[in-house]
Amino acid sequence: MTTTEPWLRALADLLFRSHRLPPDQLTTVVDAALDGLGVTVTTYLVDAEQESLHPLPGPGRPAPLPIDTSLPGRAYTEVRVRAGQDGRLWVPVVDGTDRLGLLEMLLPPGLDPTDEAVRDGARLIAGLIGHLVASKAAYADVMHRTRRTRPMTVSAELLWQLLPPLTFATDTVVVSAILEPCYEVGGDAFDYSLNGPRTALAIMDGVGHGLPAVLTTSVALSALRAARRAGADLPDQATAVDAAIRAQWTDGRFVTGVLADLDTATGTLRYVNAGHPAPVVLRHGRAVRALTGGRRTPLGVSAGPRTVAEVRLEPGDRLLLHTDGVTEARNAAGEMFGLPRLADLAERHIRSGLPAPETLRRLNRAVAGHRGGASRDDETIVLVEWSGEATARAEP
What we know:
35% of the residues lie in helices and 26% in strands. It has helices at residues 5-18, 26-33, 71-78, 116-136, 142-147, 154-162, 210-229, 234-248, 324-327, 339-351, 356-371, 388-393, and strands at residues 40-46, 52-55, 65-66, 82-83, 88-95, 98-106, 167-169, 173-180, 188-195, 198-206, 255-263, 268-274, 280-283, 286-290, 295-296, 309-312, 318-322, 379-386. The strands form three sheets. It has a six-stranded antiparallel beta sheet, sandwiched between helices. A six-stranded antiparallel beta sheet has the order 7-8-18-17-13-14. Strands 9, 10, 11, 12, 15 and 16 form a six-stranded mixed beta sheet that branches. α1 (5-18) packs antiparallel against α2, α1 packs parallel to α4 (116-136) and α7 (210-229) crosses α8 (234-248). 44% of the residues are buried.
C-alpha cells in the first residue's frame, strides 16, 4: 500500500458522505471520514474582516486564531502548508483559489508532517472541504455565522449576495478584490467574468451611502451583466447601465465605474472610465502609468460618449483598480491616504512575493491603520495579475 492510498480512501468516503450532508454536520462527517487514518481535524473559517480564523461549531470548540501573529496565520496568508508542533499540520482551505480558512490536522504517530505524500493527502482533503464550505453555505447559516463577529447591515447583506468570490485564478490571470467596511459596505462593488482568453472587469461606486446606494449599484451591476452576457461591447454595456438607472430613478443618482476587457492572449486592455479614479499599471514592482483615457460621464447621468481607451500590457503586469474611499481616507490630521502611498505599498507587497489576496488584505489594513476610526466611505480595491507565477502563488 502506498502512503497516499489511505488518504484517497478517506477522500472518497468524504465525497460519498457529502451529497446529503447537512451543513452543520460538516465537522462530524470530516472526522468520520478520517477516522481510519487516526487524523483529527478542526476546520477554521476566516472572518469577514480577514483578521482571525474561527472554528466551525463542534465539541471542544477552540478559540479563534489571529492571522497576523501566528503560525496558522502564516499558512493562511501564504497559502502554504505549514507543520506545527506535536504532529500538527496547518493546511489552507480554498475554493479554487478563494481563501476560505484553514485546517488544523493532528496526525497520529507514524504520519510524518514533513512527508510530502502526507501533505499531498492533506491538500486533497482540504480541497474537498473548501468546495463543500463554498457550496453548502447557500443552504444554511452556519458558515456565515462562523465568519461574522458582529451583525451585518441590510445593505451589506444584499450586496455580498451579488458579488463574485473575492479571488479567482486561471493559469494566466488572477483577479482579487477586497471591500470595507465589510459589515456596512454601501455602494461599492466589483465584478469579473472569464471567457476564454478574455477577462471582463468592473469596479463601481454608487453615489450615497447605505441601502439607497446599494440598490443603485445593484441595478447597475445587474444591467452590466445582462448586457455583457448578451454580447454587448463596452460602450453598449455602459449605455445599458445608464438606461437601467434612469428607468428606476429620477433623483439624479449615479454610479462611477471602470469597465474593462483584458485579452490575455495579446495583452490588449480596453476600458471605459465613467467618472472613476484611474486604474494604475504596475510593472516589475513599480507603478508605471495611470490609465487616464476612456473618459465619459458617470453611469446613469446621461448617455456618455462611446470612447474606448486601449493599452497593451506586458506579461507579468498588474492592474490596480480602486474606489475613491481608499485614496481619500483621512487620518486625524486630515491627511489623505493618497494614490502614491497606495501604489508604493502595492509595489512592496508584490515584490515580496505575496499572493494577490494577501497583498490586498495588507493594503486594506494599511488604509484602516491610516484612517484610525470608522470609515466614512466604502473602500474597494481590485488587483488583476497577468502572470503565471502569480497564479501559482494563489493555490496551496
